[in-house]
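Moderator note: this is an archived Q&A kept for reference. The question asked for a predicted structure of one protein chain; the sequence and the answer are reproduced below.
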Amino acid sequence: MSTLLLDAEALYVELRAGVRRLLQPDTAMVGIWSGGAWLAERLQDDLQRPGAHGVISSTLHRDDFGSRGLAGGADATSLPFDVEGRPILLIDDVLYTGRTVRAVINELFDFGRPASVTLAVLVDRGGRELPIEPAFAAARVSLPRGQRLALAKEGDRFTFSIQDTR
């Protein structure tokens, strides 16, 4: 098996540049729990955006809720701004099947109807099961189905690990 080396910090720099191009003056950034929330928090600070970023959980709208139950992040949703009529920029660490993004969009609409929803991700690993594409991805990689790419936060730095899911 080959080893995939990804420099999460270098990819973060790419993500920051891509997000900067996607932002409008009234755009609210919302990080998907948990890796996307870490990224959104750092982006909010680094881009010196006024106000607060939001955090959103997919737990209550997942199509596998019956088998997963209330895993971590169930009460993580915090949107400290009005969603209604506002452009929303969703931030996530790794995009794979698209099911988490679908669940998050359902959760987001429980809070109002945004003007638009755009997605930016650190890594797009392909393998989509739903018609969801990011407006920006800092990297595109391919991993076997039995592996998972996980973002970790160590202090104020990010790292990646590859985990076997079999």
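Archived answer notes: The mean pLDDT is 91.
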